[in-house]
Amino acid sequence: MVEYVFLGRSGLRVSNIIYGNWLTHGSQVEESAALACVRAALESGITTFDTADVYANGAAETVLGKALRAEPRESLEILTKVYWPTGLKKHNDAGLSRKHIMESINSSLRRLGTDYVDVYQAHRYDVDTPIEETMQAFADVVRAGKALYIGVSEWTSEQIEYAHDFSRELGFQVISNQPQYNMLYRVIEPEVIPMSEKYGIQQIVWSPMAQGVLSGKYKVGHTVPSNSRAADTKGGARTIQRFMSDEILTAVEKLEPVARELGLTRAQLAIAWTLQNDNVASAIIGASRPEQVLENVKAADVVIPADVMARIDGILADVIIDDPRLTWENAPHERPAIQD
Known about the structure:
It contains 13 helices and 10 strands. By secondary structure, it is of the alpha/beta class. It has one domain: NADP-dependent oxidoreductase domain (TIM Barrel). The strands form 2 sheets. The protein has an 8-stranded parallel β-barrel, surrounded by 5 helices. The protein has a two-stranded antiparallel ribbon with strand order 1-2. The chain is globular, with a radius of gyration of 19 Å. The termini are far apart. The model has no long low-confidence stretch (mean pLDDT 93).
């Protein structure tokens, strides 16, 4: 069953399985299927929903808002993000400037059909905007009641420290970071997690199944399923590529008996694994079919024994990616390209 946990050093409780709609709503999945997936999430006990203004250039927020319209707002936690180019993609339509934050929060609220979001997240760090300007804008968004808390996504340990220090000075809370984290991709463990623990910030992790690779659906020598992320030409194939080597797929295949012994699917094992980390509050799952939601939610209260965790580490030892420098190296080092 889904559990409800405090997020960071705050009084906000979120479901430890979060439904997210990156690469699905408004893009890969028809609206009727998207609405059915959200309904399945609600029926499974999920109360927390994650989206972003950039997903399908706003369409994902619109679909999510429609799906949640009949639900009591006080019973939900809605998270969205700001940073990447949106709207007309003109010269001020990206980054974390005061102008872009203020315009983006208003646009997100309109699309979501709500007066506020529970957590407003900086989708990446903006190297072209002074951190003081960004954090003052977030403080004003909170004071205006348009967001209750602030989070970040894919920030380095040093950047998280900046966020903590400035938010404390300005009288609001940064309570979460949203990084990629799974059995294969562990770059947050050496630096980001220790810094987060120091400041009472927790992780809301995306891609707990490594874009579906940890589900076991991809096999060495086999053609990728036609309806899978690896076959998606709208962005899915690009995002999954780092996990599609023969070496990784061979190692992942060896997890099948581990999952079977625990009475889990490999997807459930992958999600449960992320939740064993004390600094992880929630894992984000996506879905193109309601059945996927119903199956993956079963991982919410699974406890993996310590000896099995060690066994997993042994199986994956040669393919684990854990270089903390990748958080910085994979981040944008200038504002994303936009029109002049």
